[in-house]
């Protein structure tokens, strides 16, 4: 009986640890954007758009995914989760709190080439509007973005 309880406790601990380990981190977001930057530099923007639209597992991993917008116009060029916004300029459309975070993304890319932007967005795994922080980087006239939801 003691062995069964110990085994059960161990299984619960491992399952809980695995759940926490699967949550993406800031390092994961940076790494994903850097993989995207390398792809754009090596094969071009069109190849990156194809990978995003195909939901390539290198660029779409649960709630962590990469999307792309034009750095000058703000037009969304690719988004693996919300295809309805592709081709649209949502630069001045605010999040649920009124923040024009897309404008901030474009301005940050122009000023610093890369960095973090905080806002609220619909989490594809929970379906709820949640706080999010997104790492962005400018490459070849486009901004690549990957974010994590903050708990």
From TrEMBL:
<feature type="signal peptide">
    <location>
        <begin position="1"/>
        <end position="21"/>
    </location>
</feature>
<feature type="domain" description="Single Cache">
    <location>
        <begin position="44"/>
        <end position="139"/>
    </location>
</feature>
<keyword id="KW-0812">Transmembrane</keyword>
<keyword id="KW-0472">Membrane</keyword>
<dbReference type="Pfam" id="PF17200">
    <property type="entry name" value="sCache_2"/>
</dbReference>
<dbReference type="InterPro" id="IPR033480">
    <property type="entry name" value="sCache_2"/>
</dbReference>
<protein>
    <submittedName>
        <fullName>Cache domain-containing protein</fullName>
    </submittedName>
</protein>
<keyword id="KW-0732">Signal</keyword>
<keyword id="KW-1003">Cell membrane</keyword>
<keyword id="KW-1133">Transmembrane helix</keyword>
């Amino acid at each position: 009986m003691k062995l069964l309880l110990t085994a059960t406790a161990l299984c619960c601990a491992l399952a809980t640890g695995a759940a926490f380990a699967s949550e993406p981190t800031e390092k994961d977001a940076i790494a994903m954007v850097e993989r995207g930057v390398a792809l754009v530099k090596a094969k071009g923007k069109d190849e990156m758009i194809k990978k995003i639209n195909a939901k390539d597992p290198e660029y779409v991993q649960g709630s962590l995914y990469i999307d792309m917008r034009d750095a000058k116009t703000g037009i969304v060029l690719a988004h693996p989760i919300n295809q309805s916004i592709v081709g649209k300029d949502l630069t001045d459309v605010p999040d649920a709190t009124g923040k024009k975070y897309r404008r901030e993304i474009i301005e940050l890319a122009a000023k610093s080439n890369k960095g973090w932007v905080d806002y609220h967005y619909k989490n594809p795994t929970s379906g709820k509007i949640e706080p999010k922080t997104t790492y962005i980087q400018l490459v070849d006239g486009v901004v690549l973005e990957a974010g994590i939801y903050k708990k």
